[in-house]
Amino acid sequence: MQIFTKMASRWAERECADAECAAFREALATTDVQVTMAHDSYLINLASPDATLRRRSIESFVAELRRCEALGVDLLVSHPGNHMGDHASGIERNADAIGEALSRVPGRCRLALETTAGSGTALGATFNDLAAVMARVPAPLRDRIGVCADTCHMYAAGYDLRHDFDGVWRQFDESLGANRLLALHLNDSKTPFNSRRDRHALIGEGSLGAEPFRRVMRDERFASVPKMIETPKVVETVTDRRMLRRLRAYRRLARRPGR
User: pTM higher than 0.85 for the full model?
Assistant: First the structure.
């Protein structure tokens, strides 16, 4: 299950009161949910060269981590940010901010850096970008960092999951290590391969098509990796349920004899 712990498009922060945290944990315990994630605010840019914006982003990111710890959330998904000019210094700023935040908020919640589509000055469109960020974070904190791989973003960034599925994951393993894959966002793409545009489509109904999702659901390497959808809400939860049924069907079909 993925949630926001505050309004994602506003800087205003909030504390999670003890009673609220207890109610959340109690309600969660009555479900079959095994892994919880929060997605951080869309306004945060830890790689910003603007000192004021970067400091505001760091403080907001620290608040995100604190809420995750208070609620018992397993993963915090975060976009690596935009360098706004110089790529290398953006990597450094992002990594240094992550190191500061994780040092200030110790605990069990792990950070999952999300792959991006690579539009504009966004970091994280390549596995090497993410590896470079992690390598700069102080070693004692690196065990708390991994990757949330978004299929739409990867395809838009030039990783051909449609025609070179195994090759893409081989590159992931070589650059980052398979153990760094903490979560998957399963989304089709409205735009063509290598478009550098982040436009999600319904599963099997975009330029990726159904086959990459069938392979994800049937590949034992991903069996224990938490999977989320961020597909268009055509009819709110009705569409979500349809997408989840479709993904589960891909898995069930793989278990039938002769399939």
Answer: yes
